[in-house]
Amino acid sequence: MGKGISSHEFFHVTPERNLPRIMSEGLRPMIGQNSAAAAAEEEAVYLFSSKDDAETAVLNWLGELFEEEEKLVILSVQLTDTETQTLEHPCGYEWLCKETIPPERVSVQKKI
């Protein structure tokens, strides 16, 4: 982020195999395998409010959606004040972003 620009940190969980694409193209809104299974109707990037929320989801419902041997990563996502105003907030722990998040705003927080 540039000097004087406030940012907010969110978290995204993805299989580790997706990292090369994400780090070159960013996080793109889509209806992925898990979103399709949940009958999602709109393309979005799903974000968590905190690292704790992301870790709890992986240890519970979200982790159950992946194969046991699948390696996952928690990504840190930095968004500006302006960008956060466009997010949808369907429940307490989850945010939806319908715009591509550039790769320079994404970093690996934790491998699981």
Describe the structure.
The structure is a single chain. By secondary structure, this protein is of the alpha+beta class. The protein has one domain: Alpha-Beta Barrel (ADP-ribosylation fold). It has helices at 19-25, 33-37, 51-59, 81-84; strands spanning 7-15, 45-48, 72-80, 88-91, 94-97, 106-111. The strands form 2 sheets. It has a 3-stranded antiparallel β-sheet, with helices on both faces. A 3-stranded antiparallel β-sheet has the order 2-5-4.
Q: What labels describe this entry?
A:
three-stranded antiparallel β-sheet, globular, 22% helix, disordered N terminus, alpha+beta, 4 helices, 112 residues, ADP-ribosylation fold
- Give the SSE string: EHHEHEHEEE
Count of distinct structural domains: 1
- Distance linking N and C termini: 27 Å
**What's the CATH class label?**
Alpha Beta
Can you name the CATH architecture? Alpha-Beta Barrel
CATH topology: ADP-ribosylation fold
Task: Walk me through the topology.
Layout: E1 7-15, H1 19-25, H2 33-37, E2 45-48, H3 51-59, E3 72-80, H4 81-84, E4 88-91, E5 94-97, E6 106-111
Q: Could you write a compact summary of the structure shown?
A:
The chain is α+β, with helices and mostly antiparallel strands. The protein is 22% helix and 32% strand.
